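Sample pair:
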Amino acid sequence: MAELAPYTITPGTLAELAQPTLPLQDGARLRPWSDADAVALQAAYADPDIQRWHVRRVDSPDEARGMIAGWQRAWAQERRLEWAVAAADGTLLGRLALKDLELFDGVAEVAYWTVPAARGQGVAPQAVTAASAWAFDVGFRRLELEHSTLNPASCRVAEKAGFTAEGTRRGAARHADGHHDMHVHALLADAAAALPLEA
């Protein structure tokens, strides 16, 4: 079956790219995950807030290594793009992902978390801004970001990164305590071009 319009991002484009390291402030960066992150990843998923909003835990370093391997495969398969957020000394600060990639439309969803010690320092907005700029450079035209209406901290991250609130999806996402209403935010490539370089 032939498409009547071309793909926004030609399939195979992302798989051919080496995953970049993207600089943040104070020497922090978005970088590819490695097996050396397994213990820190397990520790991050022991945090109650990460468990609450991401509906999972990680029970061993081996399970964490399996997650990392899955994320690496997902990049090659153009299904999701995952970065570790790391401090200048290599300490794990968080995770940034572009998931649910729609290459025909050029749309992806942004997801993130930060470890407790990194919260309130602007790490998440910086990571979202850096990954968004990269995504628009490689051809995405719309990035979406959703969070529970009970998670105002995530709402602040979206706003600081320039994402516009578009509405609420009722009962749209399952959490451990039931289905939550979700705030929807989005950033378009042409709007992002007018934003400041730092969140």
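The longest strand covers residues 164-175.
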